Fold:
Amino acid sequence: MQNRETKKQSIIILWVLLAVSLGFNAFQYLNFHNLQQNYNLKLDSLLTSSVDLEKELNDTYSELNQYKGISTRLDSLLTEANSKVDLQKGRIELLIHEEHTSASLNKKLQTEMAALKKLREEYLEKIDALLVENEQLKKEKNDLTSTVETLTKNLESTVTTAGVLKSEYYNITAYKKRSNNKYAPTAIAKRTNKIEVCFTLLENTLAKPGTKNIYLRIVEPGGKVLGNRSTGSSTFRKSGSNEDILFTSTIEVDYLNAKQNICLNWEDMEHPFSSGTFMVEIYVDGAFSGASSINLR
Structure:
């Protein structure tokens, strides 16, 4: 009887030990599974940071170097910029090689990403300033480009009467809108938000004084006239013909047969401007008055 009781107790103990063993193994498995998941998440995050950083490096080189060959000063600036980007690339490669903790490496890579973006933006600002200066120098040497001269010759036939008002001394400026809502000159197409056209309406004692409708046409490199009917763009009847042509913006002025300085502009915050030469035409009461151009990189 005692042997049966002892045997029964032994069986119970074995079952208890088996249950404890199974429970411990289950705990170990769950703990390992959680650790594996955490490791995979950290690895995914690290890989994402590395890929994003490599893309940012390639984009930085590409965006900066597209302005090579424009001027000696700009090439010198780009050489300096590329050297600094190369140094930062070297620091990143050293980090990846020496840092053994994924969490720490990921944090440091994020810091390098922010620094690279800042460096890229700083040099784009410097490049933009040089481009604006370069365009201004070209403008001072040549009042009109060869394209404008061709356009003017083609349109001279419309200036047939002594009463037609001519315009000269064009000053065309592209602007970018900063985060503080202030505008700054730019020569880069994708940064442009507004084009301002200023000119002088010349004296003409033979013209009839009074209200004059001034029409501005800005023609982008692809040939399309910039404009939006919701903001005032429409058409006018071209003098001496039955042709209605599109205009970008318009203004009424009181002309008193004397020189008059006038400015019109076109702003578009939604659609990027194309790179290339933008033709600018001014019409007064439907008659061609003058033309100029601006080139955006």
